[in-house]
Amino acid sequence: MATQHKRTQRCTWLRYSFCCVAFLLVFGTIFISHFFITFRQKYNPPVDLKSFYVAYPHKYSFLLDQPEACKQHNPFLVIIVPVAPHEVEARNAIRSTWGNDSLVQYGNVLVLFLLGLPSGSDSEMQQVRIQQENQQHRDLLQSDFIDSYRNLTIKTMVMLEWLRDRCTQASYAVKVDSDMLLNVSALTRMLLSFIRYQRNYITGLVWYENVVIRDPSNKFYIPPEVYPYTVYPPYPLGMCYVISMDLPAKILHVSRNIKPIFIEDAYIGLCLEQLGIAPTSPPNTAQFVVNPPLTYDRCYYSELIAVITGSPAQLISIWVDLHKPGPACKVENHTLLD
């Protein structure tokens, strides 16, 4: 009888111990889960997916426009330079260098600057200066979206709208960043070298298999919920690309089905993929340069079509040197980019 009683006590104790352990495990799991959820919410707040898209399509209007520019000049090539409102120095550097090329002067090439609305405490004064600048040069396009890095895709789509609606006379269009040194003559020669006018054509420094950034600390971060694939479709870098004039309308049409991400050149790649159009590398990719050599070489620069510069002053300096009298290259060094 005593033995049976001891066994009963032992079973009761074991069941009690098991219940305690089970309770502690469950409670511990709940506590730890709650701790990590709280920690993640505090230090890793939920991602606002809307912030990775831009407000497009939208009925944007032009506050400053040059609606008759293409009709008046009937250009072979129209160059659009997206630029921030306050970057007057960059615009003036282009106006005094490649934007004043003889092909521009004769009307074969048209150069226009595209900007959005200024922001900040001095935005009203900036707008006054922008209007005065346009009265002097008549080369500004300004739309009514806030000009910012996150709105570059809006800027690009507005550019395409302007080309579709205002410049069907041109054969090609170029989007080029304001820090680029552009060789207008070399670019025109490249386009004229084709046997026939190109359609569904977009070229520049094409990136293939560009990996989608998943690091939230990177400014190019895109979460999987916004774009699920690991690589982007091919697209030309936004620094400088050329398009045939049939493409603006096609890209704008297909963009209605693709939510626009803030990375503007990658978004163009998404639209091209939907259209079934592959970007084409230029005849000589070495003529489009992202990272030029640290040491300036006149011969090397004379062969380029588009190259990034460090400042408006550097752009002017290189341009002036390239246009000095005398050959740019010694005979033995003229095969640099062949």
From TrEMBL:
Species name? Ameiurus melas (Black bullhead)
Predominantly, its location class is Golgi
Q: Its topology with respect to the membrane?
A: Single-pass type II membrane protein
Q: Which family does it belong to?
A: Belongs to the glycosyltransferase 31 family.
Return the protein name: Hexosyltransferase
Q: According to its record, what are the GO cellular component terms?
A: Golgi membrane
Keyword Nucleotidyltransferase tagged: no
Which pathway features in its UniProt record? Protein modification; protein glycosylation
